[in-house]
Amino acid sequence: MLISEKITINASSDDVWNHLQSLQGAEQYMPVVTKSEVKGTGLGTTRTCDVQMGDQSFQLMETLVKLDDSQKSLTIAIDNAPPPMKGLLIDFSILGDDSSSELQVSTQSEQTPENVKMIEGILNMICSGLKQFHEK
């Protein structure tokens, strides 16, 4: 099952892409991330995020497993996180021009309806957070 969120950001696709592909500053656009650390650049880059969701805190570990600058698309593997996020591959793609970007964030996963809602909420949080960050 495809789980997907899409949003239009009033910022150049190059600006959004350059920020997204660096994996830097997740805490600047994800309210549940209290701290993030990135190691490396390009394919194989890893990011560790300290996450606080309600009374639950945990570390999320991700690896950049696909990167296509010409198509402005990338895939992040979630290596370590609580269910239902662990093991997911999250695809990001950006279309647009000098003034506007369309960000799509998606994953393929067979999940319970409750977990689908949770994943949709997280993908929506990513989209909304990046929109707010780039439009401020």
The structural domain count equals 1
| Helix-and-strand structural type | alpha+beta
β-strand percent reads 35-45%
Q: What is the number of E strands? A: 7
Largest sheet, order of strands side by side?
A: 1-7-6-5-4-3-2
End-to-end gap:
34 Å
Protein name: SRPBCC family protein
Pfam families: Polyketide_cyc2 (PF10604)
Organism: Nitrosopumilus ureiphilus
Q: Can you give a write-up of this model?
A:
This protein is an alpha+beta fold and 136 residues long. The protein has a single domain (2-135), classed as Alpha-D-Glucose-1,6-Bisphosphate, Chain A, domain 4, CATH 3.30.530. The protein is 27% helix and 44% strand. The chain has three helices and seven strands, in the order E-H-H-E-E-E-E-E-E-H. It has helices at residues 13-22, 26-29, 113-135, and strands spanning 2-9, 33-39, 46-53, 56-68, 73-80, 89-96, 101-108. Strands 1-7-6-5-4-3-2 form a seven-stranded antiparallel beta sheet. Strand 2 and strand 3 (46-53) form a beta hairpin.
SSE arrangement:
Layout: E1 2-9, H1 13-22, H2 26-29, E2 33-39, E3 46-53, E4 56-68, E5 73-80, E6 89-96, E7 101-108, H3 113-135
Antiparallel strand pairs: 1-7, 2-3, 3-4, 4-5, 5-6, 6-7
